[in-house]
Structure formats: C-alpha cells, structure tokens
C-alpha cells in the first residue's frame, strides 16, 4: 500500500488559493489518487480523484506530475466554510482492497 | 436517496459491556469498512469486508468483532476486551471502479 505524507496543518485567509501537497513516493502503476474533506463529527466526503496530469471539478483541481510521486490539491478562493481536514488516499480503485487514511491536513481559513 | 445509515449517533457504554454499532447501506456496494477516529487524529481501519460472509482485520482489530451476513449490513461489536473504546466510529462502503468511499454520519461512543 502506498504511504502518503501531508503537512499536518495549514492556515489561509478568505479569498486565497490554497494548495495542499501529498507525497506518495511508492505509488503503484494502477493506483489512483483521491482527496477527501472532513468536517468535525462527520464522515469524510469525496472531493476529487485523478491518475495523472490535471483534473478539475466544480470545487477543486488536482495536479499530478509525470512521475506521480506527489499530488497537489488546489482550492480556489477559499472561504471560512472550507476549514476542514483534507486527506489524500492512494490505491487501486479497481478492487475493494483496504485503503489507509493518513493523518490528513488540517486547513484553517481565517477571515 | 442512497446512502449509509449508522445508528445510534451517540452511544454510552459501561465498562465491561459489549455494544454493537449498526451500519446499513442501500448503495449496492460490495465492500464495507469500519474506521475509528480519536480526537484530532486521522482514521484508523478496524475491519473491512469485500463480500458477504467474508471480512479481514485492519490495523486495530483487537477488541472488536464484525459480521457480514447481508450485503447491506456490517455491524461492529465493541467488546469488553477493547480497553479504550471511547472514540468516533465511521462506517463506509465502496465498489470497484466507484470514485471513492461513501461514509456514514458516524457513531460517537463514550465509556462511562
């Protein structure tokens, strides 16, 4: 299983772009990268998923370099409601094997 | 709407008692998972099940037991052997090719 490393915490201000990087040096060929957001006392929810290059949806972008050993979640123009913990998961989505969540990155958005 | 239902939302247990946390999904997902989360910490995998009547231990299975008699249900029993059971418990489900996990709203267990 690919181990992931993320910063423990980050601070930002409303309206700024936030980039959270995840390191996954031993990512396997069939592994995908998925990011989740968790608010206190709630289950994590899916944000975005990708395999290589760039993926964008209505809430975030995911940048994955050619070597795939890291990935960056980009949140444009954050608001106070984006204050949450963000988790990076790496694994093969073609099967139902377990995936481990790391400690995540606690993002605090300040006014 | 499809989703995962965990019950109860809050649960209090006396020391030495076993308690069972319920997890039901109507998403037709093959796999189901139980995670434990302590304050300020990430999620740790307790047990997971890829198909009915089969399950595997995660990283912290000691003191817990599960069953998977139906595709829709994956109850977790916290036994008296679990020395520090106070935590937030999350159930999730997933199916191959699906974009990710779907989580329930969690059960907060407190030992009193």
Task: Outline the structure in words.
The complex is a heterodimer of chains A (111) and B (112). Chain A is built from no helices and nine strands. By secondary structure, chain A is an all-beta fold. In chain A, the strands form two sheets. Chain A has a five-stranded mixed β-sheet, with no helix packed on it. Chain A has a four-stranded antiparallel β-sheet with strand order 2-7-6-5, with no helix packed on it. The termini of chain A are far apart. Chain B is mainly beta. The radius of gyration of chain B is 13 Å and the shape is globular. The interface between A and B is medium-sized, with 24 and 31 residues.
Blueprint (SSEs and pairs):
The complex is a heterodimer of chains A (111) and B (112).
Chain A: E1 9-13, E2 18-23, E3 32-38, E4 45-50, E5 53-56, E6 61-64, E7 70-75, E8 84-91, E9 105-110
Parallel strand pairs in A: 1-9
Antiparallel strand pairs in A: 2-7, 3-4, 3-8, 5-6, 6-7, 8-9
Chain B: E1 4-7, E2 10-13, E3 19-25, E4 31-37, E5 43-51, E6 54-57, E7 64-66, E8 76-78, E9 87-94, E10 102-103, E11 107-111
Parallel strand pairs in B: 2-11
Antiparallel strand pairs in B: 1-3, 3-8, 4-5, 4-9, 5-6, 7-8, 9-10, 9-11
């Amino acid at each position: 299983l690919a181990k992931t490393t993320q910063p423990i915490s980050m601070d930002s201000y409303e309206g700024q772009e936030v980039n959270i990087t995840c390191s996954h040096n031993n990512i396997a060929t069939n592994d995908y990268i998925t990011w989740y957001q968790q608010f206190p006392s709630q289950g994590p929810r899916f944000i975005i998923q990708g395999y290589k290059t760039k993926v964008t949806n209505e809430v975030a972008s995911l940048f994955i370099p050619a070597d795939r050993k890291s990935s960056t979640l980009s949140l444009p123009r954050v608001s106070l409601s984006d204050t949450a913990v963000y988790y990076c998961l790496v694994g093969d989505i073609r099967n139902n094997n377990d995936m481990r969540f790391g400690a995540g990155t606690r993002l605090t958005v300040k006014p | 709407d499809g989703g995962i239902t965990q019950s109860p939302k809050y649960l209090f247990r006396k020391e030495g008692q076993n308690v069972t946390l319920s997890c039901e999904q109507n998403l037709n997902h093959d796999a189901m998972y139980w995670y434990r989360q302590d304050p300020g910490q990430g999620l740790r995998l307790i047990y997971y099940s890829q198909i009915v009547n089969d399950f595997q231990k995660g990283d912290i299975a000691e003191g817990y037991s599960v069953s998977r008699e139906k595709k829709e249900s994956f109850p977790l029993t916290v036994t008296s052997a679990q020395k520090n059971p106070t935590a937030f418990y999350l159930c999730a489900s997933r199916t191959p090719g699906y974009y990710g996990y779907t989580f329930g709203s969690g059960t907060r267990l407190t030992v009193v």
